[in-house]
Amino acid sequence: MIHIVILISGSGSNMAAIVRAAQQEQWEARYHARIALVLSNRPDAKGLDFAREHGIPTDVIDHRAFPSREAFDAVLAQRIAPFDADGHRALVVLAGFMRILSAWFVDRFAQRLLNIHPSLLPAFPGLHTHQRAIEAGCKFAGATVHLVTAELDHGPILEQAVVPILSGDTAETLAARVLSQEHLIYPRAIVRLLQSLGNL
Ligand code: GRF
């Protein structure tokens, strides 16, 4: 079984889109993959409620309780470990998870650690992507699903979606347009990865 572990920090709308796709498309029967855990580094993340309502186990590791990134990441790896044992493999999906992960953590889950970023990478890695795209005069924006590597917002691209930037757009209106596309490409990227894992 592939245990999909989704890490969130906030509203979790990408996580919800993945959960819905997994149910509608019967990922468990088709790809032998189950959403095993939704874990947040913020106790008040709204997405936790959605996960609980859908019967998905949840976990919280409040990063503020840790003295260092290393210490937080060590506990994160510990909590994921049971899902990556006994012949099961964990697929770790970052969905609005607002933390940078240690290089050793990225290494441990190499090739099965995914992120979504709200820009057309390699343009605009980092924060405030929508405002930066508008200020640069871009005519198009978008979102990217990629495998995570040690370098922030880099790594092989799995899926992208493009949206226009319209005159009068604000960072908020553009973010909403991009987010609706994120909800389509993230489940699609995961399915493609699950299919390729199945072929190994
Ligand atoms: C998304 O735009 C994602 O690309 C970015 O943070 C936002 C998270 O939204 N990394 P949500 O928590 O999935 O609703």
CATH architectural label: 3-Layer(aba) Sandwich
Give the helices and strands as they follow along the chain. Answer: EHHEHEHEHEHEEH
Tell me, briefly, the overall form. Answer: globular
Helix count equals: 7
Mean pLDDT: 96
The CATH homologous superfamily name equals Formyl transferase, N-terminal domain
Structural class: alpha/beta
Strand segment tally: 7
Bound compounds, please? 5-O-phosphono-beta-D-ribofuranosylamine
Low-confidence stretches: none
Q: Give the % helix.
A: 25-40%
- Radius of gyration, in Å, reads 17 Å
Report the top-level CATH class.
Answer: Alpha Beta
Please describe what this structure looks like:
By secondary structure, the protein is of the alpha/beta class. The chain has a single domain, classed as 3-Layer(aba) Sandwich (Rossmann fold), CATH 3.40.50. Helices cover about 40% and strands about 20% of the residues. The protein has seven helices and seven strands, in the order βααβαβαβαβαββα. It has helices spanning about 15-25, 25-30, 45-55, 70-80, 105-110, 130-135, 170-200; strands at about 1-10, 35-40, 60, 90-95, 115, 140-145, 155-165. Strands 3-2-1-4-5-6-7 form a seven-stranded mixed sheet. Strand 2, helix 3 and strand 3 form a beta-alpha-beta unit. The radius of gyration is 17 Å and the shape is globular. The protein starts with a strand and ends with a helix. The relative contact order is 0.16. The protein binds 5-O-phosphono-beta-D-ribofuranosylamine. 5-O-phosphono-beta-D-ribofuranosylamine binds near residues 8, 11, 14 and 95. Belongs to the GART family. This is Phosphoribosylglycinamide formyltransferase. It catalyses: N(1)-(5-phospho-beta-D-ribosyl)glycinamide + (6R)-10-formyltetrahydrofolate = N(2)-formyl-N(1)-(5-phospho-beta-D-ribosyl)glycinamide + (6S)-5,6,7,8-tetrahydrofolate + H(+).
